[in-house]
Amino acid sequence: MRNLCTIALKEIQEGLRNRWVLATTLLLAALALALTFLGNAPTGSSIGAGRLDVLIVSLSSLTIFLIPLIALLISHDAVVGEMERGTMLLLLSYPVSRNQVLLGKFCGHVVILAFATLFGYGAAALALALTGSDIGAASWMAFLSLIWSSVLLGAVFIALGYLASTLVRERGTAAGIAIGVWLLFVLIYDMALLGLLVADQGRTIGAAGLNALLLANPTDAYRLLNFGAGGAGTLTGMSGVAGNATLAPGALSLALMLWVAVPLSLSMLAFSRKEL
Amino acid sequence: MTETVRLDGVTKSYGGIDAIRDATYSLKAGETIALVGHNGAGKTTMIKLMLGLIHPSAGAVQVLGDDPAAGQFAARRRLGYLPEHVSFNMALTGAETLAFYARLKSAPKADIARLLDHVGLTDAAGRRVGTYSKGMRQRLGLAQALLGSPAVLLLDEPTTGLDPALRQHFYDLLETMRAEGATILMSSHALTELESKVDRVIIANRGRVIADGSIEDLRRIAQLPVRVRLGFGPDGMPPQIVGTTLEWRRIGANRFEAETTSQGKLPLLREALAANGNLADVDILAPTLDELYAHFLQSKEAAE
């Protein structure tokens, strides 16, 4: 546990030093603030949704594109990069297990991402509150759930990045896989799913099939979790999907956690078998 | 003397090729050992086995009473390692880097400042490792290896990039640790430099240990000739009168050289002293570690 914390703290220290933390926080804050003040203008207040609810929808869409990308960027290099630079050899000669190294790094990276999300998105919510918008308690809860699920989505892609990083021998390959994973889950999967549903016309894929297909992509589980619930649901077409795909928020969160646990365990297994 | 490291019939193969074949030796406390061999002779693989970073394909490795690859880290806390190409995260400072490794090893905090001072990095401690020169990184590498006063030090090419003054200081530091009972294993190419610093030499070639012993032992086994050089005064004597069976070569004005065995050198000297009132200078050149190494390699190749 002590070793785990030591490694996590070093990862955070490095993140602070090489400006990763600063850069991601500023990027998320800038985009979130832009969405707050520009993205809100056309909807106005005529449709009766709270401004924070509108923001949650906008931020969810932003998260789906950006958080996986940031997570993969910081994670794909975690193992293979240290191997290539030779720092891993020295680290593993210390009284620390490989699982501790990987879990410590994971904790560090998740903390970095959580910090950036909390302060980046929090800045936007704070700006809304300060400009005098009326925000109900339910909206605040939905906002907290947005932050929590965004960090969870980030953790999924950090774990996926580690898996790529432990399976390959060169950094370039890991980077390639990371880009592939991003394209697949963020862009291609939904298009393919849409195409499939249109072609199928509801003949063979029932509600259960749709549920399974949505859970098979962590970004879809995340989307349902934020679009399908609360006041935000009425703002999006997703409430329709969410209505058909009968998935409780608990099941969605569980699916996301499984999406963290499985790739992380696999990467720990791959790492423990790696010959140095 | 207690045994600290033991290799017992260790073989390690990668994809069917043996990096190490049937290596057996043990290292003792208070011993400085040079591990000598070409690139690819298996030196680094042996060190990795002692660290438990890789598992032997056959045989057993024991370090400080533990199997290092079994996942028991008690022994590793008392182990210091310097990799051949040491590298650190560029973003952290020297002091932060050392503090990180000290925490992992549960080494006292006081070690950090003391070791930075030992390797002459106190002034650069607050600077990022990225700004360090190659030699400074090597020194930081040494400092981390010495954290927690290890009982076994495994140093892979430790003196590359060190300037002569620091090199001497480094050997003094090792000598202090050896006197306190540490086992110090150094792999190296710079053999001549190691000659007076090590108690024992292990020569590896293509994964096999081909020679193991003190430098004196190896000299005796190798039976390499000792070169004797005699210098004479201006009206020099012809050297034929001493050691008539020897072939004397003229190597300069009034200087002659001949090769003899290590047992033959004393009679020769006595004879030369008795016969030559004009003798001005005597040099005896014992075979260097380089020559011994070359000899063992050649005799090995010839045997195969």
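Chain A has one domain: 2-42+49-273.
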